[in-house]
Structures are given as structure tokens and as C-alpha cells.
Write a structure and sequence with these properties.
Elements (H helix, E strand, L loop, with lengths): L8 E7 L6 H13 L4 E6 L14 H11 L5 E4 L1 H4 L5 H11 L4 E7 H6 L6 H7 L2 E4 L6 H4 L2 H5 L21 E4 L8 H7 L5
């Protein structure tokens, strides 16, 4: 797990990133800028329990692609989930808060993830343990904002103009950030890959 001294403002940006693309980088850059983060941990997960079917590309290959894409020194590409045999985000949050208790963490996700957040294991617990920043994605603005999770957390939503305050707030607290968007999708990129014979 990367270091995080007292008071460091850190975004946690997790996913399978299979493959990583410009849309992921825009989410990371938007969070860094708008939340005024000191670091963003780009956490490459071994797999996603909600994505059944074909296994993801090898972890090392995905990490290498993420590092190539994210050349900002504030972005730390890591896969510490794998070494701790973590499967669910709630367990990742527990691990981070246990081992780095004095940093100021924010969970960062694309808006497409907010639409399905209510399907995540212990999603309410995640929302009460970390502030959450949701970054707009093409075609994923209205559905996420009317999702069960967004409705449940409606009274805890921070105005976008105050997003810089989010890392210092006690959860539950969240905001929805707009910015440059990319139409790229990992699913479409995987589907476009030539099939091996």
C-alpha cells in the first residue's frame, strides 16, 4: 500500500481497467484538479465480482498499461488489493482506513458506476466510511443521478462548486463533477480486440 502521511488528500480510484483508456484518465485528472488532491491511487483490481464471464487480462499487463497512460507524478498505480486477497470494495476501504488512518481519502468513481453502486457489496457502509466523488461520463448523467444510491444519499450531496471541500468532510458526503468526457469504454475496447484462435 502506498504511503499516506497525516492530512494527505488522496483519491482512491479502483477498477479492473481492462483495458485502461483515456476516459479513465479524464476521471483521474478531473478528481485531482477539482478535489485538489495531493495523490490519486489508481487501484487495479484482480477482478470485478459484478462482471461475470471472461476473466480479465493478466493483472501485470493491466498495471503496465495504466502506468503508461497515467504519467502524472501524483498518480500512483498500485494493485495492493491482490496481495491482501481482497475481492470487495468495502474490504478495500476497511484495509485502507485501518492502515492509513490519518490521511483524507475520497472514493472516486465514474458516473456509470454510481448507476450500479447499489449492487456493490455493503455499498451503504462504503458511503458512510468515505466521501465519494462521482465524475460524469458520456451517456451516464441522468440514470446515475436517479439511481437508488443517488436517491438514498441525496441529502448528503455537496454542491459541485464546493467540491474542493469534499476530502475534509465527514462521510456520508458526495459530489457529482462535470468536465471533459471521453466516449471510450473498456467493454467496447475488449469487444474490438481480435479473437485468438
Amino acid at each position: 500500500m502506498p504511503p499516506a502521511p497525516t492530512g494527505l488528500r488522496v483519491g482512491l480510484f479502483g477498477g479492473s481497467f481492462d483495458p485502461p483508456h483515456e476516459g479513465h484518465l479524464l476521471v483521474a485528472e478531473t478528481a485531482l484538479r477539482r478535489l485538489r488532491l495531493d495523490r490519486l491511487w489508481w487501484i487495479v483490481s484482480p477482478g470485478n465480482p459484478l462482471k461475470a464471464g471472461r476473466p480479465p487480462a493478466p493483472l501485470e499487463a493491466r498495471m503496465k498499461l495504466c502506468r503508461k497512460l497515467a504519467d502524472d507524478r501524483r498518480i500512483v498505480v498500485t494493485a495492493f488489493e491482490a496481495s491482501h486477497h481482497i475481492r470487495y470494495t468495502a474490504d478495500l476501504v476497511d484495509l485502507v482506513l485501518t492502515h492509513r488512518p490519518t490521511a483524507r481519502f475520497v472514493w472516486v468513481m465514474g458516473a456509470d458506476n454510481l448507476a450500479t453502486f447499489h449492487h456493490w457489496q455493503s455499498w451503504r457502509e462504503i458511503a458512510t466510511r468515505l466521501p465519494i466523488a462521482v465524475v460524469d461520463r458520456p451517456g451516464a448523467t441522468l440514470a446515475p443521478l436517479s439511481s437508488p444510491a443517488a436517491r438514498f444519499l441525496a441529502s448528503e450531496r455537496l454542491p459541485e462548486a464546493d467540491a474542493r471541500l469534499l476530502p475534509g468532510l465527514s462521510p456520508p458526503a458526495w459530489t457529482f463533477l462535470h468536465g471533459r468526457r471521453s466516449t471510450l469504454s473498456s467493454t467496447r475496447l475488449r469487444e474490438a480486440r481480435p479473437r485468438s484462435s
